[in-house]
Design goal:
The protein is mostly helical and about 160 residues long. Helices cover about 70% and strands about 5% of the residues. The protein is elongated and about 70 Å long.
Length: about 160
């Protein structure tokens, strides 16, 4: 028996098996109700995330203002940055200072960021579960992994989070 004949026989057998399974299994059991959500959109519109982003931006502005004042004082800089005459060494020192301050800020914010993300994630999961159960969905996937099909319940989850 040649390889081609064996391969054709295998394909014919597989087709018959799938045909037998298709007629033996009820269509309803094979197709669960599937929904999809855009997790990124939900997270970006979540009140906790929005408030945290605003607070972080405000803290960053305040810190930047203090850093600017420290640099002006340390290097005796004029109010107009275009009038400043800095040596390469001074420019390097300022860059290093800015880098260190940025790193310090990121390190301080990381635990808070992690806590807020956990809060947002837990709330999203709870609301997705509530909406899915209320609408009879058995499976909910992130829309980034769905190419075709599934009912989008993103807006319903956002409404549930906002209490609408």
């Amino acid at each position: 028996m040649t390889r081609t004949t064996a391969f054709r026989g295998l394909i014919a057998t597989l087709i018959m098996c799938f045909a037998a399974l298709a007629t033996a299994v009820p269509a309803r059991a094979a197709a669960p109700n599937i929904a999809k959500v855009n997790i990124r959109k939900i997270a970006e519109t979540h009140p906790i995330y929005i408030q945290w982003t605003q607070d972080t931006n405000e803290m960053r502005k305040e810190r930047q203002s203090k850093i600017d004042q420290n640099i002006k004082k340390e290097f005796n800089l004029p109010d107009n940055p275009d009038e400043a005459k800095l040596t390469e060494e001074q420019q390097y020192m300022i860059q290093q200072y800015l880098y260190m301050e940025n790193q310090r800020f990121l390190e301080e914010m990381e635990p808070i960021r992690e806590q807020k993300l956990v809060e947002v994630e837990n709330d999203i999961i709870a609301k997705v579960e509530t909406v899915a159960k209320a609408r009879g969905y058995e499976l909910v996937l992130d829309s980034s992994v769905v190419l075709l099909g599934g009912t989008d319940i993103t807006d319903a989850v956002i409404a549930a989070i906002k209490g609408q």
